[in-house]
């Protein structure tokens, strides 16, 4: 239920897709003389072999050695963010959300496992090299890499390896997942494309008690706590939460509003907490947190997303680097960067150099 047209991962270039395929083919021993040979060979390999090879490449090329749609002029004629600029004939209501442990974050965690398997369990260099690689992307910009490395290094100790891992996860999650989703909600509401409702699954509730690979919002929305195979692995509170989330989703599917009653289940008793719309202003950035009490909160990742949507956008403009899939200035959040955020050039070099070497 997440995803955003404003994510840097929404599309990739044809040249990048071809390069990634050639690198993967070489690693698994496929011939790489022609595209036809590469495709034919890769299709014959088991998924496990391809995934293992991709995991190894993550440690070299960054956690977001991702695959994505290519703007080929036929099936996809322009970047998704650009397509959103066209007038829409009819309004479409939007329910969108994110999770602290989104699936892409498992890709960042794969680096840690690979590094440990190579006997480099205490290597912060690998993490920050991976961070810089993933943040640079096809439009690599040393200023942006340095700024992001400095910003996310503020939240941890220089000696704690697990903190390096969290910094990498946080940076990639914010840039590729959470902030683009918030941008999508804000844009959709700002141009009156329809009603917008946003949710978030925090880290404390993102670890599945069932041990399944699906995130909790997916498990709850599809009623996994009531499947005979898994129901003993969920608490009564989690089952109740699942029922309420299914009720919200059912209401939204039927009416475009998760608050409008729809006869879904006799097991639900009482009134559910109201879910306010997301509005395109500073006081309207409400979202529903998918925890037992279903609280309504405001300002999800406001400071971190301001870093990406305001500071980095301005830095990119000043240093002459464009970014594929980024929302234009009028579609990005309008908050000014946090007052405490200082340009990395004005910082002492000691810590930043230590983090990136």
Automatic annotation (TrEMBL):
The keyword rRNA processing does not apply. PANTHER family: HLA CLASS II GAMMA CHAIN, THYROGLOBULIN. It is found in: Secreted. Its main location: secreted. InterPro entries: AB_hydrolase_fold (IPR029058), CarbesteraseB (IPR002018), MHC-II_Gamma/Thyroglobulin (IPR052001). This is Carboxylesterase type B domain-containing protein. The keyword Transmembrane does not apply. Keywords: Glycoprotein, Secreted, Signal. Residues 1-308 form the Carboxylesterase type B domain.
């Amino acid at each position: 239920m997440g995803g955003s047209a404003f994510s840097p991962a929404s599309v990739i270039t044809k040249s990048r897709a071809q390069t990634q395929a050639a690198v993967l083919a070489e690693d698994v021993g496929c011939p790489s003389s022609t595209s036809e040979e590469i495709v034919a060979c890769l299709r014959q390999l088991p998924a496990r072999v391809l995934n293992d090879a991709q995991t190894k490449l993550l440690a070299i090329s960054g956690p977001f050695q991702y695959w994505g749609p290519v703007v080929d002029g036929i099936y996809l004629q322009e970047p998704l963010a650009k397509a959103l600029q066209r007038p829409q004939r009819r309004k479409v209501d939007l329910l969108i959300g994110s999770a602290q442990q989104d699936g892409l974050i498992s890709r960042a965690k794969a680096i840690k496992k690979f590094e440990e398997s190579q006997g480099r369990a205490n290597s912060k260099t690998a993490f920050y090299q991976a961070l810089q690689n993933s943040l640079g992307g096809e439009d690599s910009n040393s200023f942006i890499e340095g700024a992001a490395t400095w910003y996310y290094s503020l939240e941890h100790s220089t000696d704690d390896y697990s903190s390096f891992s969290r910094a990498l996860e946080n940076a990639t999650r914010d840039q590729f997942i959470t902030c683009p989703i918030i941008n999508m909600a804000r844009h959709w509401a700002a141009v009156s494309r329809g009603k917008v409702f946003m949710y978030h699954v925090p880290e404390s509730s993102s670890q599945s008690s069932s041990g399944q690979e699906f995130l909790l919002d997916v498990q709850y929305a599809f009623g996994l706590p009531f499947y005979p195979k898994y129901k003993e692995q969920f608490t009564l509170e989690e089952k109740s939460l699942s029922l309420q989330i299914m009720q919200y989703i059912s209401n939204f599917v039927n009416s475009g509003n998760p608050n409008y009653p729809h006869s879904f289940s006799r097991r639900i008793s009482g009134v559910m907490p109201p879910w306010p719309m997301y509005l395109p202003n500073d006081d309207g950035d409400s979202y529903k947190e998918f925890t037992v009490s279903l609280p309504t909160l405001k300002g999800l990742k406001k400071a971190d997303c301001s870093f990406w949507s305001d500071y980095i956008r301005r830095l990119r403009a000043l240093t002459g680097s464009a970014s594929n899939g980024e929302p234009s200035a009028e579609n990005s959040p309008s908050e000014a960067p946090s007052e405490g955020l200082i340009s990395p050039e004005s910082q002492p070099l000691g810590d930043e150099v230590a983090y990136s070497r």
